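Human
Can I borrow your eye for a moment on a structure tokenisation matter? Give me a protein, with the fold worked out from its sequence. Write it directly below this note and I will take it from there.

Assistant
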Amino acid sequence: MTLHIPFDNSYALLPPQFYTRIDPKPVRTPRLLRFNTALADELGITPGPEAELTEVFSGNRIPDGAAPLAQAYAGHQFGGFNPGLGDGRANLLGEVVDINGHRCDIQLKGAGPTPYSRMGDGRAWMGPVLREYVVSEAMHALGVPTTRALAAVATGEPIYREQGALPGAVLTRVAASHIRVGTFQYFAARRDTDALRALCDHVLQRHYPQADGPDGLLREVAQRQAELVARWLSVGFIHGVMNTDNTTISGETIDYGPCAFLDAYHPQTVFSSIDSQGRYAYDNQINVITWNLAQFATSLLPLMPDQEAAVASFTETVHAVPGIAEAEWLRLFGAKIGLADPSEPDRILINDLLALMAEGRADFTNTFRNLARPEARDQFLDPARFDPWQIRWQARVAQEADWQARMDAANPAFIPRNHRIEQMITAAVADDLAPFHRLLDVLSRPYQDQPEACDLMRPPAPSEAVQQTYCGT
């Protein structure tokens, strides 16, 4: 049996200013680290022998039907606009229509330089590749819309970074598409209205056929992105680099560079080494996505015949984003404390718990998972401070049916803890992939009790705590 990928490409049919056609750059001695057979089945891919998988997903061989290209886009990065970004180390092999009828991109990340590399080598080292593989698959299992990981391949070539020589790797990423807010900004900045209209039509057909024109598209994307960020908050996730070129039109989480999960809860937590101002702190993510969507709205304005009316309509849509996110937040956090239909007074109850957690440095994941268990008190520096809140909560949850099952379904036992990710990377660099495979197995079932993996539930010891995370470039 040979590898078969049923490509059905559409982005490659758009005008030439959307991309540069370029093949991945071959690597020296590729070695397959992991192949996601379950995802391949969903995509309708027939896996071939390991040697063939290694050649294709390292970029050494172009599979039949592929149309390799690097996409052009722009973006606001930490608030500053860059009109010329693009895929500096990624190569879109093409698209497939999966077994459920959904169109998906298949992209190699770390596949070599492109015209958008900006003096970079277009490569990725093994650490960020394995981090994205683990975290994106964990997010999928947690129920958060996300890109997926199909394969990871070691290149057998060193990658030179500030730390010195590091082992290279290529990630195969799957997404509903890689079209971003920054893709629209790219053409808006160039006043290329024809290309902007072609992009809008393509996105409407691909993602939102029910939407009516640019204003309908804005409303759909705003809804999905607002709900997505609320889901991040509900699992303690901090994206770390919410630039507009990392804000997808499909509403999926993309780019797992300086991302991290909360251990001890504090709303202003920042991990990213390049976020010195706290722009992308945990509790600022709703504000940031609102700002990003305002930039999306601005890029759509050239398509609107009545500019004044469009500004009024778009402003209303963007101003509604915090309310959509907060409503979803209340629904999700209500479930986390056992409530089927939380109301505004319940928001006070939830916020009071979060304030206690911040004061008591309580672990975010373990506190919510153990609220109905004696271990909940142990999460707080001063357990007695938790007791009055617990009495209030018990009185409220007594009015609910099936509250315990609801909490177990809303509160994961396992997340990809930052220190475990770093330990996994260190082991992999030393040619020990066992921690990588173990994390993937445990995190594929995050809501299940797994006593044999209880060590992966523990917060980091002071010597293990990750203080900063870094981009994967």
